[in-house]
Amino acid sequence: MAELYFSSASALGKTSYAYVLIDGEYMRGRGITNENRIITEYQGLNKGLSLALDKDMRKLMVFGPRLIIDQLRGNVPVRSHRALPLYNEARALLSIFRKVELSVVSHAMNKAFPLAIESLKEFFEGKSIAKSREIPDRRIEWIKGLKFVADQHIVDLGRESCSCKFFSETNSLDVKRAGMVIRCRHIFTVERFVSK
Fold first, then answer.
1. CA 31, chain centre distance (Å)
2. Pairing mode of beta strands 2-11, 14-23
3. Dihedral sign of CA atoms 99, 101, 107, 111 in order
4. pLDDT at res. 174
5. CB count, 10 Å around CB of 116?
6. Where does the chain have alpha helices with state H?
7. pLDDT by residue (tens digit) across 92-137?
8. Is residue 15 predicted with pLDDT exceeding 90?
9. What string of DSSP letters covers 75-115?
10. Over 90: is that where the pLDDT of 177 sits?
11. From the centroid of its chain, how far is CA 154?
């Protein structure tokens, strides 16, 4: 029986989705949106279900967040009028399979969750790298050890941390839960400065 994991993650107004489909091979997909978490989770689920059908998989175990699984089981109503079409699409896709089992899975056990975090990380760090070029070397000062001041913010390269608001907001509970860090422009600036 094939397995489909789907998940989402959010930080600073962006939400990412991811799905992982396992059936002898490991197929995955991800993306980033401005939508809310429920809509994004349904987007990941529907893309994963469509891929499973394209690969002619007819028996599927689906692992995902509690709210979506409960809605698909009919235990919880879909309250968002914007999520309803995606819910209906998921139900239609699920009806095509010969056998489907729906299971709730925690973030720690969800194979799609780290992939959703990676999407956020790539998105925000891409922007941070570009903005780091705007900070000249004269705005960087070494404090001691691996601590620096970059554009009036304290950067600790040893801990991969920064005192700026962007750093604290992008490193949401989801990001911390995955054991990852999204670096800000100040960290990239100091890394560039140290590597010279």
1. 8
2. antiparallel
3. negative
4. 86
5. 29
6. 37-54, 66-73, 84-96, 113-132, 165-170, 173-177, 185-195
7. 999 999 999 999 999 999 999 999 999 999 999 999 999 999 999 9
8. yes
9. SS----TTTHHHHHHHHHHHHHSSEEEEEE--GGG-TTHHH
10. no
11. 27
Partner residues linked to 7 by β-bridges:
18
Domains of the chain: 2-114 (3.30.420.10), 123-195 (no CATH)
In contact, 93 and 50? CB cutoff 8 Å? yes
Confidence tier at 196 by pLDDT (50, 70, 90)? confident
What CA–CA distance (Å, rounded) separates 114 from 6? 11
The per-residue pLDDT for range 30-42, each reduced to its tens digit, is 999 888 999 999 9
CA-to-CA separations, 87 to 23, 36, 90, 112, 182, in angstroms, rounded: 24, 14, 5, 19, 31
Residue 24 has pLDDT above 90, yes or no: no
What are the tokens at 71?
């809605």
Question: Quick one: tokens of 121?
Answer: 């990380």
Length of the chain: 196
35 close to 136: Cβ distance less than 8 angstroms: no
The CA R_g of the chain, rounded to the nearest whole Å, is 20
Residue at token pair 């860090």:
181
What does pTM read for this prediction? 0.89
Residue showing tokens 């009036």: 152
